[in-house]
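Hi everyone,

Forwarding the result from last night's run.
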Amino acid sequence: MLEISNLHVKLEAEDKPILKGVGLRIAAGTVHAIMGPNGSGKSTLSYVLAGRDGYAVTHGTATLDGEDLLTMEPEERAAAGLFLAFQYPVEIPGVGNMTFLRTAVNAQRKARGEAELSAGDFLKVVREKARALKIDAEMLKRPVNVGFSGGEKKRNEILQMAMLEPKMCILDETDSGLDVDAMKLVSDGVNALRDAGRAFLVITHYQRLLDHIHPDVVHIMADGRIVKTGGPELALEVEQNGYAGILAEAQ
């Protein structure tokens, strides 16, 4: 599914190295979590995979199902099946949620050579998925994320993910700012999308999200590298003891 090999990335504006040799292999049907201290490069990894401007890849590769992600434009990566849920979802005033969703879905279907959804078919699907995520119908009529609470913004992103049906889902600190109830709703939406053909990379600071989205593999990132990999118990170790012991081992 997703394969990253010896990836080095710098921040262009400051000519500052951020990622210093990241290697990662995520198989279809699995959930991987990345944890680590602030500034370790977790979010940078997600931005680079999605094609955000401002970062320069100086060495290494990243492929999705054998296709070179790093040579694609962001919209091509999305059409290839990559989805990034942001830590802070942006507001888009003047663009209705339904219009945004239908445009995104049909743009991707067209890029893949598939038939676009008719208005009627789209409405049926989006209402069904919104109900499953406990998203009120009125919320679908509002401009994208405008006036939404933190929990509503995150649920709206999970609705986008459910509609786009990506192969590789990256969640960048999607638990940030969520209360317990909102986090459970978002987690339930993510878990409903887990299947043998889809993989997840969950970036988080806290074990509490992983109580709901149970990872198969947990990685610890520090100073631009993955310094330790293990099972779900590794996240519990971090929760109980912090990163100090793990970082000392890695030196």
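The longest strand covers residues 16-26.

Cheers,
N.
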